[in-house]
Design a protein that fits this description.
The protein is α/β, with parallel strands linked by helices. About 60% of the residues lie in helices and about 10% in strands. The protein contains 9 helices and 5 strands. Strands 2-1-3-4-5 form a 5-stranded parallel sheet, with helices on both faces. Helix 3 links the parallel strand 1 and strand 2. Helix 6 runs parallel beside helix 8. The longest helix is centred in the first third of the chain and has 39 residues. About 25% of the residues are buried.
């Protein structure tokens, strides 16, 4: 993101310098036509403009980077007593440096019947809040059987409650996939049904269900139609922070 900011701002600076150069060259040509062939003054102006503009651009980049660093550190601090548990989508919270590794317990391709080790890790961290974000891989594994899915999810919740009685648990909804991916794999079209069953389970257990469906617009998907680009995660982390009053 910082690299992109620098590129955009430097492109802007180059455009400004180029425009100034064109104007001054035009003036220089006019002077030549009038018999004045000393271009040193024009060159000095161009050089001064370049230095001034680049300096301003660098100052803006530094300010943007400083602001970004502060925001990142602020989020990490707010989630210092929080653990987000999930699969590869959750793992990207660390890959994109949104959260510290100590705030994320994740594994690529993990299903609800494989989370025993993840539970042990989370219990060892003794968080005040846990966000669960499982289900994408389970939609395929359970082949549309939402009863089996919610039964497995309930077992995970019960295990965490038993071992962490003072920890507040939130359950994230399963993110939808892109339209193209949904057409490629019909089982993903069942995600709304899975989320409905998941919310019912949460209601019965008196825990909060966090519906993130609206966040997942087409612009945020990676090419695979399942995972998300970096700029999506600031939306998701903000959503979790809001519901947990962090």
């Amino acid at each position: 993101m910082r690299k992109r900011n620098r590129q955009l701002l430097l492109i802007g600076a180059s455009s400004i310098v180029l425009l100034i150069g064109v104007i001054l060259i035009s003036k220089g040509m006019s002077h030549l036509r009038n018999g004045q062939d000393d271009t040193s003054e024009g060159l000095a102006i161009i050089q001064a403009a370049e230095e001034a503009d680049i300096k301003k651009i660098e100052e803006k980049i530094d300010k943007l980077n400083t602001k970004e660093e502060k925001n990142t550190q602020n989020i990490k601090s707010r989630f210092s007593s929080v653990v987000v548990m999930g699969d590869s989508i959750t793992e990207a919270l660390v890959e994109y440096d949104i959260l510290s590794p100590s705030s994320v317990v994740s594994e690529i391709g993990i299903r609800l019947d494989q989370v025993e080790e993840a539970i042990d890790t989370a219990v060892g961290l003794q968080p005040k809040i846990i966000f669960l974000s499982y289900g994408m891989n389970d939609v395929l594994a359970t082949q549309g059987d939402t009863e089996k899915f919610t039964r497995q999810y309930a077992e995970v919740v019960d295990s965490l409650k038993e071992q962490l009685p003072n920890t507040t648990i939130f359950v994230n909804s399963i993110f939808p996939v892109s339209k193209v991916k949904s057409e490629e794999e019909p089982l993903f079209q069942e995600i709304p049904k899975y989320n409905e069953a998941l919310q019912e389970m949460c209601d019965k257990k008196n825990i909060a269900f966090v519906d993130n469906t609206i966040l997942a617009s087409e612009q945020y998907y990676e090419e695979d139609g399942v995972h998300f680009k970096a700029n999506f995660y600031s939306l998701w982390i903000k959503r979790m922070a809001e519901v947990a009053a962090l």
